[in-house]
UniProtKB/TrEMBL annotation:
InterPro entries for the chain: FAD/NAD-bd_sf, MnmG-rel, MnmG_N, TrmFO
Protein family per UniProt: Belongs to the MnmG family. TrmFO subfamily.
SUPFAM superfamilies named in the record: FAD/NAD(P)-binding domain
Protein name: Methylenetetrahydrofolate--tRNA-(uracil-5-)-methyltransferase TrmFO
Gene: trmFO
């Protein structure tokens, strides 16, 4: 048992983890429930099936954090990137792929690997011994989901994400916004100034409600909806319940004084809260939404102070099983309460095909090192892979943890470079140059 690595789930993460481990000489068993047990989104029994779009997003490794993640996975001999490159379709700067050929390619390569065995069937319980990676994704089967929740506590496993938009701090206009917690609550100055506030007068509020009501919204997929209303309503649904609902909910203006206009009482206030320890990202509190992405940027830029906001990610609500990784996982992605189990992929709280595959790649390599009696040095936070794993296993705020795409807001700043929109090109190039050098040194150890 101990010389075999078992992986539950042969999606983006599980397939990449298997490839990394098998190439390093481990015996690997992939336990995949499809085609015996399906999900509402998967259509085939192939490994690494893309359930929706056929895009791996930007392939620009100099100016884009996803493109950088592509680069890092290619440098590590990743199977997902090899097959994506092989089955690429024309799509401008994006890496789009022929989804069937891609998934068939991944499946064939893994099934043909002498160290890999694929066992079909659903795993329904958490293993007590042996080396395991759980990479069952956003649509983890119900029985296994319950077994995970029984181990972690129900509050630490979510079945829906409710993502409020996240804004780059440097793009917020602090001549209009200010830092203050309601009623200056908190013991320390940091706590008393924990929130960033954007004030609205009556006309601005009414125009904002009109825009929310008129915005294009995304519909839920069939089988996706159950239970989400219990948790948190989309902001536009709150607005539909009454024009004043938001002003008495997340946008209430009480307990706050605008230092830019101390004599004017705001009619409503939008609050943002720090989203990472670095303080480079802020989420808009209570603004989970089903508005389409284009509509979100138009509507949210109506908020005073956010006119030029740049979004690290936009809001959403989806069926998505994910752990509260900052509290449950150690820095090597192991479940603290059962360290024979690692988690990888979207269930760890990253979001997207590329991010999930990258977390599979890392989990596979960490498992190899552990099973060979070695300890790998931590992945530098300056790399895209390192920035993501650092975020999910500790950098993110545990209380408000929601799935995250890779973005430059997760990277430690490069000192001495110009901030703001104008300096962006040089800054991103500096981030990606630093990341590539650090990733290569990490791989070479
Ligand atoms: C409806 C929907 C649309 C999406 N659209 C996009 C998109 O357009 N772009 C994007 O980048 N991301 C999208 N995502 C997110 C995408 O699913 C993930 O980013 C990616 O597939 C996650 O990789 P993963 O390996 O973690 O999970 P998956 O790729 O889902 O793989 C998990 C695997 O585990 C298997 N499994 C589950 N439970 C068990 C069990 N108990 N036993 C054995 N096997 C099991 C599943 O069958 C599946 O093959 C979407 C997700 C959903 C649900």
């Amino acid at each position: 048992m101990t010389d075999t690595l078992h992986i539950i789930g042969g999606g983006m993460a599980g397939s990449e983890a298997a490839w990394q481990a098998a190439n390093a000489g481990l015996n690997v068993v992939i336990h995949e429930m499809r085609p015996q047990v399906g999900t509402f989104a998967h259509q085939t029994g192939n490994l690494a099936e893309m359930v929706c779009s056929n895009s791996f997003r930007s392939d620009d490794s100099e100016q884009n954090a996803v493109g950088l993640l592509h680069w890092e996975m290619r440098a590590a001999g990743g199977l997902i990137m090899e097959m994506a490159d092989k089955h690429q379709l024309p799509a401008g700067g994006a890496l789009a792929v022929d989804r069937d050929a891609f998934a068939e390619g991944v499946t064939e390569r893994l099934r043909a690997h002498p160290n890999v065995r694929v066992e079909e069937g659903e795993i329904t319980a958490l293993p007590d011994d042996g080396h395991w990676i759980i990479a069952t994704g956003p649509l983890t089967s119900g029985t296994l989901g319950q077994a995970i929740a029984a181990e972690t506590g129900a509050d630490a496993l979510a079945f829906f994400d409710a993502i409020a938009p996240i804004v780059y701090a440097e793009s917020i206009d602090m001549d209009k916004a200010w830092m203050q917690s309601r009623y200056d609550k908190g013991e320390t100055e940091e706590e008393q100034k924990a929130y960033l506030n954007c004030p609205m007068d009556k006309d601005q509020y009414e125009a904002f409600i009109d825009a929310l009501l008129a915005a294009d919204k995304t519909e839920f997929h069939e089988g996706e909806t159950a239970g989400y209303f219990d948790g948190c309503l989309p902001i536009e649904v709150m607005a539909e319940r009454g024009r004043e609902t938001l002003r008495h909910g997340p946008m209430k203006p009480v307990g706050l004084t605008n230092p830019h206009q101390p004599d004017v009482k705001a009619y409503a206030v939008v609050q943002l809260r720090r989203d990472n320890k670095l303080g480079t990202l802020f989420n808009i509190v209570g603004f989970q939404t089903k508005m389409k992405y284009g509509a979100q940027t138009d509507v949210f830029k109506m908020i005073p102070g956010l006119e030029n906001a740049r979004f690290a990610r936009l809001g959403g609500i989806h069926r998505n099983t994910f752990l509260n990784s900052p509290t449950l996982l150690d820095a090597e992605m192991r479940l603290k309460s059962k360290p024979n189990i690692r988690f990888a992929g979207q269930i760890t709280g990253v979001e997207g095909y590329v991010e999930s595959a990258a977390m599979g790649l890392l989990a596979g390599r960490l498992a190899v090192a552990e099973m060979q009696g070695r300890t790998l040095p931590p992945v530098p936070e300056t790399t895209a892979t390192g920035a993501l794993v650092t975020h999910i296993t500790g950098g993110a705020e545990a209380k408000t943890f929601q799935p995250m795409n890779v973005n430059f807001g997760l990277f430690p700043p490069v000192e001495g470079l110009k901030g703001g929109r104008r300096g962006r090109k040089d800054r991103y190039k500096a981030y990606t140059d630093r990341a590539k050098a650090d990733w290569q040194s990490w791989l070479d150890q």
